[in-house]
Amino acid sequence: MNTSVKMILVLTLISALSGGLLSYWDAYTSEKIEAYRQQEIQQAVKEVLPDTDEEKIQEAGDFTFYVGYKNGDITGVAFVAEGGGFQDIISLMVGVTPDFSKFTGLAVLSQKETPGLGTKIAYDPSRKGNETWFVDQFQGKKSGNLTYVKNQKAYGDSEIEAITGATISSNAVITILNKCIPTAKSVFESINQ
Amino acid sequence: MAKKVSLLEDFTKGIWKENPILIALLGLCPTLAVTISVENGLAMGLAASFVLICSSTLISLLRNLIPKQVRIASFIVIIATFVTIADRYLAAFYPEISKNLGPFIPLIIVNCIILGRQEAFASKNGVGRSILDALGMGLGFTLVLLILSTIRELLGSGTILGYQVMWDSFSPWMVMVLPPGAFLTLGLMIGASNWINDRRTR
Hints:
The complex is a heterodimer of chains A (193) and B (202).
Chain A: H1 3-48, E1 54-60, E2 63-70, E3 73-84, E4 89-96, E5 103-110, H2 133-136, E6 147-149, E7 159-161, H3 167-191
Parallel strand pairs in A: 6-7
Antiparallel strand pairs in A: 1-2, 2-3, 3-4, 4-5
Chain B: H1 7-12, H2 28-34, H3 38-61, H4 71-93, H5 95-101, H6 112-122, H7 127-157, E1 159-160, E2 163-164, H8 174-177, H9 179-201
Antiparallel strand pairs in B: 1-2
Helix pairs in contact in B: 3-4, 3-6, 3-7, 4-5, 4-6, 6-7
């Protein structure tokens, strides 16, 4: 057989078989992957909207809002905020009061910060029993124009205590929040007038 | 190929004599990047071994069918197929590990250990020998990752597989979980293996 024909034939055959196998495998695994992702989001929503019995989902533009209700009254809104971290995207689940003025909670969905330093935004093993202190401190803080303080306790309404040795990661979280919350607020209000 | 190589030697050469990391210095990128914890190191080693064994088997079976001109392209397609299978498998069944390893699982596609074994061995030898070779290389790779990640997790976090093993007042060496810790530890391991080889030949 002509070499050129053989080359094309063999490579086409291998690629076709590979594609077939992978599409079968994808159908098998994608359900589980999606289910895990949903479960992760649900768990984060519960964390950031503590005072809630049920959540309703509203989609608008780039945002998916998880609106929390208790006894029929709206108690908070949760949504995903993303932005650049030290090396990669940080993805946060933000919980705010219905008027977007205060935090009801904050959780890290995914991050790829420096292990042992920036990863403390999600989990800080050096504070035993209080490993998620960085995101926990947001609860009750005002949501606009956050600033951070270094190496001291944060007392102000919109002050956040930065992680020692990981100011860039701490600042990245604050920048994402300062940028995303006003946008989310205007989108949410435009669909709920 | 040399005719006098025994089957056993085809298997064992990957573990020590031609160890992909310590001797050939191949596949260093995942080696240095993911060995922060034993769990990650083990998952990485097993995933790469799975891909290596499957690809070697298939490519050695197809070696007379694939024209020389398109062999690299064919190898890459076959390797990529198995890598995608491994990647999706981890994401579906071990989502936490998949999250930790991030892009390093898809990057196995361009891991030079795997392509190197196809080019140097599987495309020139029978199925039996190719499987033995892949098993040995995979085991050698996994073992080095295990030792490296054990040292780094023990000194960098004071734990093994997440369990606290160091005494309470032990303060973790931050450098061990950062890139310099990986370079230092791997350098010392390569030094140690060279020293042992040196002593043997004398």
